[in-house]
UniProtKB/TrEMBL annotation:
Database matches in InterPro entries: Flavoprotein-like_sf (IPR029039), FMN_Rdtase-like_dom (IPR005025), ISF_SsuE-like (IPR051796)
Xref: PANTHER family: IRON-SULFUR FLAVOPROTEIN MJ1083, NAD(P)H-DEPENDENT FMN-CONTAINING OXIDOREDUCTASE YWQN-RELATED
GO molecular function list: oxidoreductase activity
Protein name as annotated: NADPH-dependent FMN reductase
Keyword list, A-Z: Flavoprotein, FMN
Organism: Desulfurobacterium indicum
Domain of life: Bacteria
Coiled-coil spans in chain: none
Domain NADPH-dependent FMN reductase-like: 1-148
Length: 192
């Protein structure tokens, strides 16, 4: 089993830290990788239609191909995003739009998808951000999971502040980040 975590932030900041907490809960026997979109160029899908005609290969040449290969290889994809105006970042949306090519071949179908969102404000749009990620996953035919018991809601929803250059997360944010990771262990157990 392979888990891919995607940091949808434009930088390596609080979202990456939380994703590391989530992956830290996942059993060491499970293969895990985190990628940050800040390391990749991702252009916009312009609806050229090539992927529809060629069976699912995006013809734009940038960082998307590498990410697409990683997503295709993974069994579980955990997508994290900072809340930007109540939703996901523009770069993550670009990745989602480009992934239309993968939907032509249904390459992500029946993979598991969990979501993580972090914002600077309580009720700042974390759940809406998570639902944007879930919407993408559902449209690919993926199986969406949230954080497991005892928290068991939509995934990791965190509030962050910064003190002395360090990120500080609310208690619920840390708990749901961990719980999301534990849910991956439960899925792995079910699949055995
Ligand atoms: C353009 C922009 C819009 C933002 N909008 C929101 C928002 O709607 N709600 C919120 O709680 N935080 C908002 N924030 C704060 C970020 O979500 C927060 O700082 C987050 O921790 C950044 O994640 P990162 O450290 O991984 O980059 C916004 C930040 C930026 C730059």
């Amino acid at each position: 089993m392979k888990v891919l975590a995607i940091n949808g932030s434009h930088r390596k900041g609080s979202t990456l830290e939380l994703l590391k907490i989530t992956l830290g809960e996942i059993d060491s026997s499970i293969e895990k990788e985190i990628i940050s979109l800040s390391d990749f160029e991702i252009g916009y899908c312009k609806l050229c239609g090539a992927c529809k005609k060629n069976g699912g290969t995006c013809v734009l040449k940038d960082g998307f191909q590498e990410i697409a290969a990683k997503m295709t290889e993974a069994d579980v994809i955990v997508v994290g995003s900072p809340v930007y105006f109540g939703s996901i970042t523009g770069k993550l949306k670009s990745l989602f739009d480009r992934s239309r090519a993968l939907r032509v071949s249904w390459s992500l179908k029946n993979k598991f998808c969990g979501a993580l969102a972090v914002g600077a404000t309580i009720h700042g749009g974390q759940e809406h951000t998570i639902q944007a990620i879930h919407g993408w996953a559902l449209i690919h035919g993926m199986l969406v999971f949230g954080d497991t018991s005892p928290t068991a809601h939509f995934g990791c929803a965190a509030v962050v502040s910064q003190k002395d250059g360090k990120f500080e997360f609310n208690k619920g944010g840390i708990e749901t980040a961990k719980s999301l990771g534990r849910h991956v262990n439960e899925i792995a157990g079910m699949l055995k």
